[in-house]
Model the fold of this input.
Amino acid sequence: MASCTIHTAPYSCSISRPAAKAFSLGFHQRHQQLIFFGSGRRSAVVCSAEKTVVIGLAADSGCGKSTFMRRLTSVFGGAAEPPRGGNPDSNTLISDTTTVICLDDYHSLDRTGRKEKGVTALDPRANDFDLMYEQVKAIKDGVAVEKPIYNHVTGLLDPPELIKPPKILVIEGLHPMYDSRVRDLLDFSIYLDISNEVKFAWKIQRDMAERGHSLESIKASIEARKPDFDAYIDPQKQYADAVIEVLPTQLIPDDDEGKVLRVRLIMKEGVKRFAPIYLFDEGSTISWIPCGRKLTCSYPGIKFFYGPETYFSNEVSVVEMDGKFDRLDELIYVESHLSNLSTKFYGEVTQQMLKHSDFPGSNNGTGLFQTIVGLKIRDLYEQIVAERAAASAAAAKV
Amino acid sequence: MATAAAAGISLSSPIRTVPVAKAELLGRKPVRIGQMLPLQRMAATAGRGRVVVVKGTQSSTPPDISEKVEESIKKAEEACAGDAVSGECAAAWDEVEELSAAASHAREALKANSDPLENYCKDNPEADECRTYDN
Done:
């Protein structure tokens, strides 16, 4: 995919060498492949006129196989698969346009190491942020890297795999926004904030069928991780451009099954190339119940809210959905009233949701907002591509 | 798709009726996909030589991961019996969480590959066997 054309600034090629500063050489001709052997890592020079777009996703739920990732890659087209012929326990997903890498691969301590030191995976001491920064920067500059693999089954660090720069790189894990250098590389960042009650309900559903687990063990596991989570992971949400907050529903009193959810999409204002979605009138406060004469909903119904708010001293716009969709026409009705969705045709959000109706969250705000964020990222990517095309056209004229 | 039919389509549970002929070929009665018992799935996939461990629950984890989860829970309970706020206790429960997540991914992977009809319909949604109905 990388191609070299004759350009003057700002396009240049750089060589990534482990523990060495990257420097620009200003290649203008065809591909040059140089392989350095040093400290067990090889890097290749790839002359690329396009910088990879990097998206960061902070989530606590394991890597690469999450529903959000699958929806996102589906918006761009094509299914994301683990790399063919490589380590079967690789956490990486690759589709035509997108590569998703799991930040657990940058653990500096494997499971035994963490147990010895008494640190959880959430602790920054268990992660190599220097390597993370170095490699994400290299991929962004168009250089392929050999990325380590953290095997979740064995708990060991496996030999590295080659990651070639894609058009869009998504880094998913616990600490995408923790290190300020990595944060600056991100073109867009998302934080998936699951409230404690919902997390508990989901983990019960996930683990109760597992032999050995009981309600107490699930609860103890959440409680034991909470201090590290609150100290290291939670603060990242102030840096995110979009936060998807999942809370228990307010429509059903004392609901503890986590089946009906209240989901808030918190969008930072003033982010480059990102226009927040809104309901009816941008900047105003709207409370909307779509169910009524035109639309019949089943219990407990659907409730929407939109308004400007302040979130960690940032100006944000919040769209909130409480309830669940039961029918296609509810979804299409809601979609037709939301604005700034960056869809390419009427009903695209509904179509994407239908395509993956078997995914969890397809009938509530989690699926809806994840799909919408996916479309927003697609829009951001296309804006970047258009800007580059315009810049190179201008440069060519000079 | 007529708009009248489209308006009534349910998002939550697509019902597929497997035409009898094909069902008999696969050696099972027409049933809803989601409610197929593990035993029936096993019969359906027996020809491929896959071993599916059935524990009497709808979704089954590969036994090695399942054992690891059990062990890690025991170890965590021991580690925390002494000091509930120590780093070792937190690290032990973190390991439990990691293995539980791995187990759930393994379950999903097994589910995703175990049903030949689902796999066929993913690629050919317009085929007769794959039409979904909502009544």
User: Anything to note?
Assistant: The longest helix of chain B spans residues 87-114. DSSP finds six helices and no strands in chain B.
